[in-house]
Design a protein that fits this description.
Length: 170
């Protein structure tokens, strides 16, 4: 079993697996992403991400990756920009070729080393929601108004009468 400390690279040597000396590589680690790694995303922080699973070899010698990645990402509220904790969990299941072909330019070409970091990172990025709202912030919106403007809620939206006729056609 590999135990990765924060800051270690998530690379695994596949030689023993390929030669049949090991049946699988067990993965059980916790990883905290650095500010540099999350730069350019909406994430404020991504700490203590739990990665569990295994790397196996199937009957036709394909390297198979089975991972469960879970944790909590910290994102800014879409209304108040207050940090919001958003839990996530993603299952990663596929062959090395399937998962690495999607990021061919980032993947290392060494057949005996598997770096799971790009696979995990891509799947976490796909879990980032378009918008998160902190509890109670929607209530603040109803009171927002200024000189000649106010926030209109979904219930208050008026349908343009010209477009309402189109609705009848569908």
């Amino acid at each position: 079993m590999y135990n990765v400390r924060v800051g270690d690279i998530m690379e695994f040597n596949l030689l023993r697996l390929k030669n049949g000396l090991d049946k699988y590589i067990d993965i059980d680690l916790t990883y905290s992403f650095t500010k540099e790694e999350i730069e350019g995303t909406d994430l404020l922080s991504l700490n203590n991400v739990k990665i569990k699973g295994e790397i196996t070899k199937n009957a036709i010698d394909d390297i198979m990756i089975h991972l469960n990645v879970s944790g909590q990402m910290e994102l800014p509220c879409a209304i108040t920009l207050v940090p919001v904790i958003y839990p996530f969990e993603v299952e990663i299941d596929g062959s090395r070729e399937e998962l690495i072909d999607e990021q061919a330019e980032n993947a290392k070409k060494d057949e005996n080393i598997l770096d799971i970091f790009p696979i995990i990172w891509e799947n976490i990025l796909m879990e980032i929601p378009m918008k998160v709202v902190s509890p109670g912030s929607e209530d603040k919106l109803t009171n927002l108004q200024g000189d000649g403007w106010r926030v209109i809620t979904e219930e208050e939206k008026e349908i343009n009468p010209e477009l309402a006729k189109l609705k009848d056609l569908l």
